[in-house]
Design goal:
By secondary structure, this protein is mainly alpha-helical. Helices cover about 80% and strands about 0% of the residues.
Amino acid sequence: MSALLESPFFGVTITIVAYWIGVKIQQKTKLAICNYMLIAVVLLVAVLVVFDIPYESYYVGGNLINLFLGPATACMAVSVYAKLELLKKNWLPVLVGCTVGVATSLISIFVMCRLFGLDREMTASLLPKSVTTPIATAISQDHGGLVAITVAAVTVTGILGNLIAPMLVRLFRIKDPLAVGLGIGACSHAVGTAKAMEMGETEGAMSGLAIGLCGILTTVAALGFELFL
């Protein structure tokens, strides 16, 4: 049994099955709360807890899926290229918007960590929560954070963005698809971008662009983390 659990196929298989179940439930119910990512995470956690399976055993295979996050994110450049003319006309608002988004995320997390008295390790783990997982984990590791906490924070951030982005767009009456896409991508990375793509082609392309640009800006900003942690 231990050989099966430590096999890469175990982590890959239960992840794919959990994701498939989540998609089917969302398609069946059509409820925002029945988000396929949220369902998949809950199912995976339930399986590991009920059957007392160590996370390390699951991650042998789960890490293989994690390796594809980088290439999958890079593939979003295709949709960005399709909107290249729009990007050329609006390069300054795009740059300013992503810069403000990164600054808001980092400052708000840093302030809340200080208010709640979190230590340096936890602060370093939570600061990159709004960028895509490969970049967030690299930043967390470089500054002494806990990768598991970072991954959890990134996942929760993405799922929340996926769930509430359409509601916030309606609430604040945001009509510009460029602004919608940049906002979603800057706050909730790839998982939010999946929702942006459902909302429209321009929204999806700009959200994909925001993932890369905010990732770069956060990486640069991370160079100054040591001054504040």
